[in-house]
Amino acid sequence: MRILFLLLSAFLCATAFAQAPSIQQSLSMKSVGSPRISPDGKWVAYTVSETNWEENAYETEIWLANVGTGEKFQLTNSKKSNSSPVWAPDGKTLAFLSTRDDKSQIYIINPQGGEAKVLTKFETGVSYFEFSPDGKSIVFAATVPDSKAFKDRVEKYSDYEVVHEDYKMTHLYSFPISDTDSKIPTPKALTKGVDYSVGSFSISPDGKKIAFDATKDPDLINGHTADIYVLTLADSTTRKIVSLKGPDNSPIWSPDGKQIAFATTNQNEFYFYANRLIATVPAEGGVPVVLSQSFDENANLLKWSAEGIWFAGFQKTASHLFLLNPDNKQITKITKPDNVVASQFSFSTDFKQTAFVMASPNRMAEIMVRDLANSTIASSDKSIKKPGKTPKAITSIADSPKNLTQMSDQLKPFKTSNREVISWKSSDGTVIEGILIKPVNFDSIKKYPLLVVIHGGPTGIDLPTVVADRIYPVEQFAAKGALVLRPNYRGSAGYGSAFRALNVRNLGVGDYADVISGVDFLIGKGWVDKDKVGAMGWSQGGYISAFITTFSDRFKATSVGAGISNWATYYQNTDITPFTRQYLKGTPWNDPEIYQKTSPISYIKTAKTPTLIQHGELDKRVPIANAYELRLALEDNNVPVKMVVYKGFGHGITKPKQMRQVMEENWQWFGKWVFGEESTH
């Protein structure tokens, strides 16, 4: 009888476990993005990303959806990826980027189907592009091809790099569409030289000028040098019109072409955790005017129409579309309900419709479309033509958005865990929010193992939406009977500039307080077995996990993914040194105390927590020296440690087979140290 009971129990456990998507199934789930609505609002082009296990790659293809009928079909189908769809102004053709010929090049296709035609064969590949307003030409950005002198140098000496000298600048190029009928056109360089490297750009409504941002070089350490320029196409002259301290970028034109809106930190030199504000400046240059001070988050510029300036931004664990009136600086939230995560907006030519990506709690992201205004009121209201005038009809969207995709159907075969937003107070009284993921059939009188999954950034954010697992097998952990907490610790996006600055000169220390107070909050609820708690994270989340390893004895195991172990080591090797100077307000040379206080390695003698270390071999953001330093220190102090190096990868692990190994490694690690299971390898 006992044997029968054990067999029945094992069967029931296996059945319950099978209800969650496996690691393989999670990695195979599709996702959508990059919606671009046609000029007339009748079609939406978007991308679908899926897993190609044979090629060990995530590949994207472009799909089209009919707004009226909801009918959709795949438009492109080739080896490798097709992405970044852009409609011609007349809506008759669709251009896109494709890597089918190795380098990313521009192709064009009839949206009703047929073969795509290549428009560029640029030596270094195309980064991004736009049609001119009249549709007669395309402007694109690309890295400048190597000069003959550089190629001769490589031929003579082989390949080497002079640090802070051998930069590959990005510049703007154009070609006329009319030349593409019988041949591949030769692009004309619109900007050139070594004085700056171009970032984003925007073509004026009359097509005669291009506004762009540029830095002194493409080195990440010089991001603060981003300024706004205007290129006049008739005479090829370029003029800098904004040169504030800190980065100024993402220019867009006003409808009449007389002003330019751009993103700025408003001369705040500590821009890594400062708000990105919206400012405007006359197109001929002048004194910038900041418009979005009342919006306490990053304002991500989209478009400027007769109704005002459109932008998107986080509001805690939600994200929305907003409209800014440049005359009175009034800001109106457009999307609803309050808890949706909406992003990647595009607009029809008349701004009466928008296509975007939207996810809601416990749902996957979908492509959506909705009306922005009552067309009858808009067409009869003369004031809509005045820039900055917001008609009453646009302050609220009456109709629900129309769903054009059904990505969440992928979840139907499974019983997935439930996500909810919770909050608690940290040790200094700061209110911290997080996402609590509960197993199916959660029982509030039962105590569960707790696994803390910590996002990167630190200005990342965790949301209550469903994203297929890629690094940590969250659904599998929950199906196994664990609670999963994803804390939006101090420094996270969505909660305003003051919150993002709370870990300045307080990295690790304040972050740990936010994590452990969340753990204690759940223990206080009676939901957590305090002897079965683990933590994991990638990048900044890996750093916080490393801090937990050495600073605390409260956790049974940690997993450090691409994490910092020593801020001095990091500062001396990373490709983004200003990050450390801004958050720690010093360098290892002039303030070694703050580097010691916030570095996990400083507490190595108290380390007891078994630690899994995972790191990309070629990581420039968090160089692998950090991983080796932590591994050796733990070994020397007799702390169980395992280190896995992913050959050929940088800061992120981007291929499905290696992602599978990352997930299975974490599954085994926490199975052994938190769940007490026997390791299988």
Provide a descriptive summary of the structure in words.
The chain has 13 helices and 36 strands. It has 681 residues and is α+β, with helices and mostly antiparallel strands. The protein has a domain at 414-673: Rossmann fold (3-Layer(aba) Sandwich), CATH 3.40.50. The protein has an 8-stranded mixed sheet, with helices on both faces. The longest helix is centred in the C-terminal third of the chain and has 18 residues, at 656-673. The two termini are 33 Å apart. Mean pLDDT is 92; it is low at 1-18 and 375-398.
CATH superfamily of one domain: Alpha/Beta hydrolase fold, catalytic domain
| Unreliable stretches covering 5 or more consecutive residues | 1-18, 375-398
The rough form would be described as globular
Q: Work out the number of β strands.
A: 36
Task: Give the overall pLDDT as a whole number.
Answer: 92
- Report the span from N to C terminus: 33 Å
**How does CATH name the architecture of one domain?**
3-Layer(aba) Sandwich
Helix content: 10-25%
User: What is the CATH third-level topology name of one domain?
Assistant: Rossmann fold
